[in-house]
């Protein structure tokens, strides 16, 4: 019996790995096409190793894909020794696939001669592609991998490392291509980072609400019975009065937020309500969770 369970578990993991590889390949293809259609022909070195590759392409004639691969090889070897090959298998696949596809898609024409449109749509397509890669638990290596290793040895955060590398690359592009093109590259970097976040975290924009009221019990019951949403009661203390208060926390869909406001203020017109975006909500009543897919 144990042998059957092991085999089924092994098959499931293999299937998940194959699906992840397919997703990573699709993401790399989209990003590589965006690079060739918008960024490379317009000298937009929008951070990352691919940005460094664009600089070296125009300065030394070295293909972008070759730069990406050459930069990643020592990083992948270092991470493999530190983390183990099993941990880095998706990164190895993503890094190789991205570098190969950048060169394979050189036939993709420059879609627009407008540098601003190229910055925007280059950021969109590259961000979409990389977001799909990250959502499938992969990476394309590059500055993210360098920042990860830097974090381990220096204590710098991943964010600090990535931003630092990207700013150095964009500053380098300013030296060779001019400040104006570098500023457009910065726009592209900003767009791609936002799109990556959207794709990786999900497009659903549920709403998280914090409610403070003297009628918290009545409001809680209204949300539970009228909306069918769970409510969490949090014990808090007023900073000014020092009194113990009850804070209600609830998450609802975007279409339910107006009804929730009505339910709150129909019970207590003096209630204090904070509503904020919740970009990804998992669990009962929302997105089902499979630990193997996280």
UniProtKB/TrEMBL annotation:
GO CC terms: plasma membrane
Compartment annotation: Cell membrane
This protein's UniProt keywords: Cell membrane, Membrane, Transmembrane, Transmembrane helix
Pfam families reported in the protein's UniProt record: DUF2179 (PF10035), YitT_membrane (PF02588)
Principal place of residence: membrane
Domain of life: Bacteria
DUF2179 domain residues: 229-283
Parts of the chain that traverse the membrane: 21-40, 52-77, 89-109, 115-134, 168-191
Membrane-topology annotation of the record: Multi-pass membrane protein
Protein name as catalogued: DUF2179 domain-containing protein
């Amino acid at each position: 019996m144990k042998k059957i369970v092991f085999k089924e578990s092994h098959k499931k993991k293999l299937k998940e790995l194959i699906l992840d590889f397919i997703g990573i390949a699709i993401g790399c293809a989209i990003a590589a096409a965006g690079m060739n259609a918008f960024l490379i022909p317009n000298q937009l070195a929008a951070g990352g190793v691919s940005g460094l590759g664009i600089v070296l392409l125009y300065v030394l004639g070295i293909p972008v894909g070759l730069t990406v691969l050459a930069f990643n090889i020592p990083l992948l070897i270092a991470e493999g020794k530190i983390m183990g090959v099993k941990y880095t298998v998706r990164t190895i696949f993503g890094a190789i696939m991205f570098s190969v596809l950048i060169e394979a898609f050189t036939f993709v024409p420059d879609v627009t001669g407008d540098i601003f449109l190229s910055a925007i749509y280059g950021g969109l397509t590259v961000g979409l592609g990389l977001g799909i890669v990250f959502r499938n638990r992969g990476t394309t290596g590059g500055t993210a991998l360098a920042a990860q290793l830097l974090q381990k040895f220096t204590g710098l955060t991943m964010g600090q490392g990535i931003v630092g590398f990207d700013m150095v690359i964009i500053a380098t592009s300013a030296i060779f291509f001019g400040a104006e093109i570098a500023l457009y590259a910065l726009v592209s970097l900003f767009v791609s980072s936002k799109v990556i976040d959207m794709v990786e975290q999900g497009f659903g924009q549920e709403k998280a609400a914090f409610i403070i009221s003297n009628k918290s019990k009545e409001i809680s019951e209204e949300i539970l019975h009228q909306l069918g949403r769970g409510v969490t009661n949090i014990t808090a203390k007023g900073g000014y009065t020092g009194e113990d208060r009850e804070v209600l926390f609830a998450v609802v869909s975007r279409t339910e937020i107006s009804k929730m406001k009505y339910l709150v203020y129909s019970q207590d017109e003096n209630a204090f309500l904070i509503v904020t975006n919740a970009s990804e909500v998992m669990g009962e009543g929302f997105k089902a969770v499979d630990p193997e897919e996280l």
